[in-house]
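Reviewers of the previous submission asked for a worked example of the structure-prediction workflow described in the proposal, so we include one complete record here. The input consisted solely of the amino acid sequence. No template or homolog information was supplied to the procedure at any stage.
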Amino acid sequence: MRDYQKIQFNSINNIADYVTKKLKLGHSIIQILINEEKKEIDELISYANDRERKSYYTCYMEEHQSIRNYVIEEYMIPDYAFKDPERGINHDGSFQDCDIGIEIDSQNVIEFDDFEHEIRGMKKYYNGDSFKFSIKDDNSYHCEFFISNGQCDIENFGGPTELEFVTCWMQEKEYYIEN
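From that input alone, the workflow returned the following structure tokens.
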């Protein structure tokens, strides 16, 4: 991935401190849950800090609060329209261009302490091993964790940035070829 570096949790002594420092420097953090059988990202959670107050997330803040002191959290479930042959056809029978979109999208603004707690709690999932959510679940999953190489495009954070990431990840794995 040209704009992101994959991070192995076990290669960093204190992952929460490391990623907090990266956020405060303007980088974005992306964690993904991969469905190995479907060959797709099931969930994506991204984090950023709007230290220059350029994002629309400032509207979530009370007048006395500064967005600089918080972490923006974006939760997204991608939509893979290109995998569903029924979805690419218009009512008149013509083909509709289908790509990767957003099925579920929600934003939150959290304190740095809450962010660090979430990251510490995720450490057990970022060892690279596959896991199942339940005995009845036929799918295997694994998690991956990424940090942007440079400054986060905070003005496009919360949808466009994440869709670009999903598309690039799917293309890199050769699970998706853009027409």
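The radius of gyration is 17 Å. We consider this example representative of the routine output the project will generate in years two and three.
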